[in-house]
Amino acid sequence: MAREIPYIQAIGEAVHQEMARDETVIYFGQNLGLTEDDPYVKAFGGDRVRVTPISETAEIGMAVGAAFAGFRPVVQLYMAEFMLVAMDQVVNEAPRFYGMSGGEVRVPLVLQAGYGFTAGWAGQHTGTIYGMFMGVPGLKVVVPSTPADAKGLMTASIRDDNPVVFFHNYLMTLEHGDVPEGEHVVPLGEAVVRREGSDVTIVGIGWTVGKALAAAEQLAADGIEAEVVDPRTLAPLDVATIVHSVEKTGRLVVVDQATRHASAAAVIAAEVASEGFSALKAPIGLVTALDATIPYSQPMEEYLMPSEERIVAAVQQAVGSSPVAA
Amino acid sequence: MDAPPTEELDAALGVELLHGMWRIRVFEERVGQLTRADEVHGLVHLSIGQEAVAVGVCSRLSNDDAVYGNHRAHGHAIAKGAPLGRVMAELMGRDDGLCRGLGGSMHLVDVEHGFLGATGVVGGNVPLALGSALAGRLAGRDEVAVVFFGDGAVQGGIFVESVNLAALWALPVILVCENNGFAEFTPRSAHSTVERVTDVVAPYGLARTTVDGNDVVAVRRAFGGFLEAARRGEGPFLLECLTHRLRGHYEGDPQRYREAVAQDEWQRLDPIRRLERRGHDEGWLDGEAAARLEKSARDEVEEAVGFARESPFPAASLTSDLTYAT
Fold first, then answer.
1. Which value does ipTM take for this structure?
2. Cβ contact, residue pair A62, B101, below 8 Å
3. Buried (b) or exposed (e) across B207-217, using 16+ Cβ within 10 A?
């Protein structure tokens, strides 16, 4: 049975349910499980739930070693940027070992990383950096856009035998949505069509899926029917679902909260240009953040971010000034 | 901690240790030749001169204890039990290699023998051993984790983070520093004002000791003391082994940064010759037996070379099949 709960609670529920289901799931990170009343400590004890020092490299490296031995660690990083101080472990140890060992060792590991907190957190705590990780072979990159997916994708991430970076969007922390109460699994690597339409495909990622859906409603009032596709997992990327949609609509606008260059949006555009070129009736539109460090001051912050208006404008440009008929 | 256990060096143990060192020495000499002949194709770092550390440590361990090596890890893997033929096949990039040709010299893994892996980035392996130690504790087993690293790793933040976390969580991990005085091409004096690695970790309160790393019996004895305590769940420990890397940083290194050690000085340092002299002095080894041990290692290595040459190259597409664990 589903009931409405916030996005962040849905993630926590998945971790809690998986810890109850599988005693090899362990949970650690900074500022975690500090009291005996902590719901994780209470249910699973201080051995499986433990606070760490501010030592991302050692935390993540230790999690990799525990994963070799058959545990399924979830490392709570709070801010995606904190992974950057541990890049050797995230990029060069965790995802390399399965391949480098000829398949001898597996690294079932989840790095839980919040991103995109454009709420006055400024340059070092606000970035949308999943694009940096989606090109790392062996690493899976998950970006949930709804509370239900947040739960289902976290469950699948914990059960996956590969290292997964689970990017949850901080702007969506308290957004409510229907979430199934019991076991809920959303398979990794499968995109979903959030809204059907025939005139243009809009691909949204994470937080921008909601923006794309809102823009689609505005566009519908003008007679433009947009199909909204949510990749849900950026690595591996479900190119087929996106291309299939573009084959139907003939137009593509990709909306990404990240900077434009070397971004998930750029990769998706390249895949469609490569795999679905003959279906395209117009140049691919990219609606992204500007290539700048996120500023502190609110008007500048808003100026930099992709918005509903910019999505609508990009779609209008893609379909031409007159309503779509043929 | 109790005093290290005293152990009689009898003929059986002396022969075992000598043979263990010969196997590594001859194997690596042969790898050097095969590198120059381009039969071993990639980047290779040899540990000739440092065999006493790998053998002194690993001769105490079982397959259930996890060992991590660094970029100079042929000796670690062999001492831990990896079959010579499969190590050689790996260095030749063959399908029967430990990692089916995906890892090579710097990324050997042999799960069956508890060699969980070598990592090529200096210091990257240290927190992995913490994870193995944590896993052993969580599973309620008395397994111990051991990590080999050079003195060059000690100046990295990853080392300090790992030592702090291991001490804080009292993990049963034994850190084994092979202090050969050179970090890649640079003498220790150009890296740090702290000469002894045991001094670097002193503030964390680790039990620690510095030994003559070219004396295999001294290494084995000191390590044995730490191991007994670690089996009881104590830890962490640091064993600093002062040793000498006879070869350059990598095969082909012109070594303009140091004077080659004089032949008579090397005769004095060489861990194999030292144990042989001791065997002669103590009467458990004669010239004939010593020659037999060397010959047996040479035969075994030639057999390994034959095995590796016979092994086919893997199907090139294997690399794509082993990107993600399924």
1. 0.94
2. no
3. bbbbbbbbbbb
